[in-house]
Amino acid sequence: MTVACWIFEFSNKWGGNGPLLIGEAMALTKNQIVSKVNGLGFTKKKSAEIIESLLELIKGTLENGDDVLISGFGKFCVKKKNQRRGRNPATGEDLILRERRIVTFKCSGRLRERINGKG
Question: For the chain: N or C, fewer Cβ within 10 A?
């Protein structure tokens, strides 16, 4: 079973009953997430609004340079990369890569255990 199959757990408070199976897939899509939220009793439109609002909140937080910690899932961090020398692999031309920010993800210990079959 792939990791994508076990993405969301909803508490009984939200009408869920444990892990929601998505199916064997290469990647979990936003549309699949919306469908699963829709399966909890929300309309498809409301489900899409919920997911879109969540993603906008996460994107806005990261855009401001703040980290996003989702307990039991992991932490998205914004890190600064300094300007550095690089090389175009196609032409071999030397160039300067500008300073930029990147987003990294570190999964929680609980998620790591589930991925490795220990949870």
Answer: N
The number of residues in the chain equals 119
Tell me the C-alpha distance between 86 and 5, whole Å: 38
Same domain, 2 and 41: yes
CATH code for position 115: 4.10.520.10
Residues with Cβ within 8 Å of 78's Cβ and at least 6 positions away in sequence, in order, are: 62, 65, 66, 67, 101, 102, 103
Give the model confidence (pLDDT) of 22-80 as tens digits.
Answer: 555 579 999 999 999 999 999 999 999 999 999 999 999 999 999 999 999 999 999 99
Strand partners, 80: 101
Q: How far apart are CA 67 and CA 98, in angstroms?
A: 22
pTM, entire model? 0.69
Residues 59 and 112 in one domain: no
Q: Which helix (H) or strand (E) holds 32?
A: helix 30-38
CA nearest 68: which of 56, 80, 81, 52?
Answer: 56
